[in-house]
Design brief:
The structure is a single chain. The chain is of the alpha/beta class. Strand 18 and strand 19 form a beta hairpin. The N and C termini lie far apart (67 Å). The N terminus is likely disordered.
């Protein structure tokens, strides 16, 4: 065994002095603080829409280590709309199947995407530095096409002063400090969020008393491209649970649950880690340690994600356990929700109060993720003898009985949030499929050419199935894209009708820029459509 560092630190935006450092105080519509995946996705989306945006990052590129590795279908669909999806798909390791073990015995396996007809797979495994780099690469493409996006590396925000009509930021650089004013600030600066701390805002929740060892190993192995999870694994020294995932470049992620009272320095000794890995892979396995770390986790969130002109997204707003891949995936959905609303406000198409819906919708999503994350953790680590007896009984039943398998919780894997009951929702008058109800994200489907989500370009879209498209191009200045599809011409597999019509002969959908369903009806109604658009931009009655 050879101990090496797996270095994915791409220096993508080195520090360079800018004119703003010599100005009294530059003012911009939107400043994003933090250059991780959430900050870069927000900036790319805003810039693609034509809204000027500046990213301030205290580093010069993406960081070391694989960190998040598991990116969901919905995240890939958002990245695809932004232009980076195909590069991620080409590099990532595609998987749909997971297997659950208890001790040496396989309990059952599951398929996260058993049905065909989706452009993107259920999940890919891709190290977070690669994910971030592909977003920055696409920002460079967008900049070349005229998108007003700027990135400043080694520009650390050290002070924040909210004003009535802007936010003043103190920025530290290798050549000294300067100030900048922003109409809106998006805080994407991570779980320890300096901006949140500077503003004295709470971050409430639960700290879990457990430690997990990450060992990313480089090896050539014949294991299938699947997610393997063990409860009470049979290999010596592996702890209470273990997880094995394949990543690109022959890197495999191994997680060991070590418990709470450990000596971190001892557990991070390469020889001790090697003993654990040898026990899992078998004596004589050839590999290199590529990255190791020990983490604990918390399930917490801010009470509100908007504080005046400062909006929080990703880990700065909410934090969950890594089980279920809900951290980065939910953060990308934050960016998807926020960017179009900020764009509308900057352009004068919507009132500033529209941002309150961002907080309501994404706090709803955070609560859902925290609930699932907490349940997974409690199933992984029973808190009493009786809880453990129940957990093991469920695992025993699941071996032979399908009804017990949904109760097995090795981490409910990330799915997009449905905004049920939220204030931007319009009417749902279609007796149609539940999966595409109002508030739900659109489900992809194959067309005669391409896929449905490729037709939804990040604008309000009127989607007509087997009915006339309303003759209305804009509402309150908001442009409407029209997409008319007839099942006899555009639905070669029947999946489109199954997912959007059900038993109904026709339907009209209003789709938001983030591809969530805003309203739906059994037929065309111009007045109802106009009213639903107003509701969806925060101008409803």
């Amino acid at each position: 065994m050879v101990d090496v560092r797996y270095d994915l630190a791409f220096k993508l935006y080195p520090y360079a002095r800018v004119a703003a450092q010599d100005m009294p105080m530059q003012r911009l519509p939107v400043v994003v603080v933090g250059g991780g995946p959430i900050g870069m996705a927000t900036a790319l989306d805003l810039g693609r829409k034509g809204t000027p945006v500046l990213v301030l990052d205290d580093h010069e590129g993406v960081g070391q280590g694989s960190r998040a590795i598991c990116f969901s279908k919905r995240t890939l669909e958002i990245a695809d709309r932004l232009g980076a999806g195909q590069a991620m798909l080409d590099k990532g390791v595609v998987w749909n199947v997971g297997k659950v073990f208890h001790g040496p015995d396989r309990v059952f396996e599951f398929n996260l995407q058993p049905e065909a007809g989706h452009k993107m797979p259920a999940f890919i495994n891709l190290q977070q530095p690669h994910f971030e780099k592909f977003l920055v690469d696409e920002i460079r493409v967008a900049q070349a096409q005229g998108a007003p996006i700027e990135i400043r590396g080694q520009n650390a925000v050290t002070g924040v002063a909210p004003q009535d009509d802007c936010v003043v930021l103190d920025v530290s650089t290798p050549e000294g400090p300067y100030q900048i004013a922003a109409d809106w600030v998006v805080a994407c600066d991570g779980a320890r969020s300096p901006l949140r701390n500077m503003l004295g805002l709470s971050f409430d929740g639960r700290v879990f008393e457990d430690n997990f060892l990450i060992a990313d190993v480089k090896m050539t192995a014949a294991f299938p491209t699947e997610r393997w999870f063990w409860f009470e694994p049979p290999f010596k020294g592996s702890g209470q649970s273990a997880l094995l995932h394949k990543q690109p470049d022959d890197i495999w992620r191994i997680d060991f649950q070590l418990g709470w009272n450990i000596d971190r320095q001892v557990e991070l000794d390469p020889t001790r880690i090697g003993e654990r890995v040898d026990a899992m892979l078998g004596e004589g396995a050839e590999y290199e340690l590529a990255w190791t770390s020990i983490y604990t986790f918390q399930c917490r969130r801010m009470k509100e994600f908007r504080h005046g002109r400062v909006i929080f997204a990703g880990d700065s707003a909410h934090q969950v356990s890594p089980f279920g891949a809900r951290g980065a995936n939910s953060g990308i959905q934050d960016a998807d929700n926020l960017a179009w609303k900020l764009d509308f406000i900057v352009k004068g198409l919507a009132p500033e109060s529209l941002l309150d819906s961002y907080s309501a919708e994404r706090a709803h999503g955070a609560d859902e993720n925290i609930l699932n994350s907490t349940r997974a953790t409690d199933f992984l680590t029973p808190k009493s003898d009786m809880s453990k007896i129940f957990r093991n009984a469920v695992l025993d039943l699941a071996r032979q009985h399908e009804f017990a398998r949904p109760m097995v919780n090795s981490g409910r894997l990330s799915v997009p949030c449905v905004y049920d009951g939220m204030p931007l929702n319009g009417p749902d008058e279609l007796d149609g499929p539940d999966i595409t109800r109002v508030g739900a994200p659109c489900i992809d489907a194959p067309l005669d050419r391409g896929y449905l989500l490729d037709r939804l370009p990040g604008q309000f879209t009127v989607l007509a199935f087997n009915c006339a498209v309303p003759e209305i191009d804009a509402v309150e200045g908001v442009p409407l894209t029209h997409v008319a599809l007839r099942m006899t011409e555009h639905d070669p597999t029947g999946a489109l009708a199954q997912r959007y019509l059900g038993t109904q002969p026709r339907a009209l959908y209003l789709i938001r820029p983030d591809q969530h369903v805003a309203a739906r009806w059994p037929d065309t109604d111009i007045d109802a459509l106009a009213a639903a658009v107003k509701t969806a931009i925060g101008k409803g009655a």
